[in-house]
Amino acid sequence: MTKIGLEIHCQLTNLQSKLFCSCKANYREFSPNTNICPICVGLPGSLPMLNQKAVEKATMISMALNCKTPEKIAFFRKNYFYPDLPKNFQITQFDAYGPTSIGHDGKITIEGKEIRIRRIQIEEDPGRLIYEGTSEKTQIPLVDYNRAGTPLVEIVTEPDFDNPKQVRVFLNILVDLLENLGVSDPTLEGALRADGNVSVEGGNKIEIKNVASFHDLEKAIHFEITRQQSLVERNIPIISETRQWDDRRKITISARKKEEEQDYRYFLEGDIPWVKLNSDHFKKLREKMPESIASKRERYVEKYGITNQVADVLSSDKYYADLFEQSHDEKNAKEIANIITTDLMGFVDTREKRETSKLTHQHLTELVNSIMDNKITRNSAKTALQEMVSTGKSLIEIISEQDLDNVSDESTISSIINEVLNEEANAVQEVKEKPETVNFLVGKVMKKSKGKADPSMTLNILKKKLGIT
Ligand SMILES: [Zn+2]
Fold first, then answer.
1. Which residues 6+ apart lie within 8 Å of 264 measured at CB?
2. Contacts of 168 (CB under 8 A, 6+ apart)
3. In terms of C-beta density within 10 A (0-12 exposed, 13-18 middle, 19 or more buried), how is residue 387 classed?
4. Interval between CA 350 and ligand 1 midpoint (Å)
5. Which whole-number Å values give the CA distances from 119 to 66, 93, 398, 435, in the listed order?
6. How buried is residue 3: exposed, middle or buried, by Cβ count under 10 Å (0-12/13-18/19+)?
């Protein structure tokens, strides 16, 4: 039997400052070693001060994953030596005196399978090593401490996954959940990182670390299951160790003997007092918790009659869900949902495009109401939407500039139809014999009118002229 567990590190990217000092949590915009202070590089005599907002965000994650939360939380020093760790210890949480991490014993159900969450802890991110040089032999490691002390939440699951596909589904759901909570931006490089552990047939556990992406983690777990099964078949013992994913060769390679907890010499961080979480803390956060993805999805289907598939896409992506929430009313909800999940998705499919998009929720409301009032065709609306995304112009401006207004004047449509009927004699004959082929002629009229002819009016006039029903 295969058992897979995960450890996910999530940076609280939406916070202003680091976990224990006032340096910026967004270290990405700084040149190396300029976003640092005596606290985050651990100079003697400096004292950490806990970021209250980080505790709040971590509590929200804990509640969203149905964890139990303790009355008091404590911080510990995890001691190890590595150049990117300036203090030679990491301030983290550890359950040495009963559960004192921000969450424990949670669960989340994915595709009918329950995945238990063992623990959620708040900790600081280390700095980073940057390698300069072209070949492996001439590389020089440089240390950048800008990231040191950035607030992280670590989510540890029980080994409840049976296969890599479940891991992928879980990670996708988790990413959406964290984004919906407004705690982390998963599109930022390094904001979400996952390690896996794999054991087969009750054997020793192998950890897979330093995997660049969730996609690679899935491949690494897949490889590791095959490798371990082959060892078991040949009666070769599996040694408990940490392995790394070699992306070039698509294999895992032995990195080091796995550390045991006692190797880290955990002890209580005496510079940070225990923090009591009173009922006000939870009450306040419960009020602040955004509506869950599942609840949004249900509401979209039940209240507005949006299809399950569209509701799924809309609710799980915070960017779309927020746009929808701001732009719709009872009448136009379904149409707005459709425009977002069909046309808009094609125009803002990357982080960069979303950031540079000039589209506002007012644009969407205006556009959809105009479609519903037959002032503009669905076809022209798509053109207008693209223009709104790139220029931010109003619908009226775009319509007059690009001549997009709906043609619903009977005599104009009628004369376009006459032209088409003259040009398409063969098709006309066919439609008379097989009326179901009439859409071909509707298409020709739409094309001739540059997408502006009102489609239902076109169909009606065509049917009348050809004497079909
Ligand atoms: Zn600092």
1. 78, 79, 80
2. 214, 218
3. buried
4. 32
5. 11, 10, 53, 65
6. middle
CA 161 to chain centroid, in Å, comes to: 21
Mean pLDDT of successive 10-residue segments in the chain (469 residues)? Answer: 96 97 95 96 95 97 96 96 93 94 95 95 96 81 96 97 94 94 92 95 88 91 94 90 89 80 88 94 92 94 94 93 94 94 91 91 93 85 92 88 75 84 88 87 85 83 84
Ligand 1 centre to CA of 410 (Å) is: 71
CA gap 95, 104 in Å, rounded: 10
pLDDT at 335: 94
Q: How far is the CA of 46 from the centre of ligand 1 (A)?
A: 10
What b/e sequence results for 316-350 when a residue is b if at least 16 CB atoms lie within 10 Å of its CB, and e otherwise? Answer: bbbebbebbeebbeeebbbbbbbbbbebbeebbee
Distance from the alpha carbon of residue 23 to the mean position of ligand 1, in angstroms: 4
Q: Which domains can be identified in the chain, with CATH numbers?
A: 2-281 (no CATH), 291-402 (no CATH), 410-466 (1.10.10.410)
Q: Which two tokens stand for residue 340?
A: 């977002």
Contact criterion met (CB below 8 Å) for 132 and 143: no
Q: What is the DSSP letter of 407?
A: B
pTM attached to this predicted model:
0.83
pLDDT of residue 258: 66
Strand locations in 66-191 (E): 72-73, 76-79, 89-92, 103-110, 113-124, 128-132, 140-144, 151-157
Looking at the DSSP assignment, which residues form a beta bridge with residue 139? Answer: none
Please state, in angstroms and rounded to a whole number, the distance separating the CA atoms of residues 115 and 180: 20
Residue that has been written with the tokens 């984004």 in this structure: 179
Side chain identity, residue 253? I
Q: How many angstroms is it from 127 CA to the middle of ligand 1?
A: 12
Distance 335 CA to ligand 1 centre (A): 49
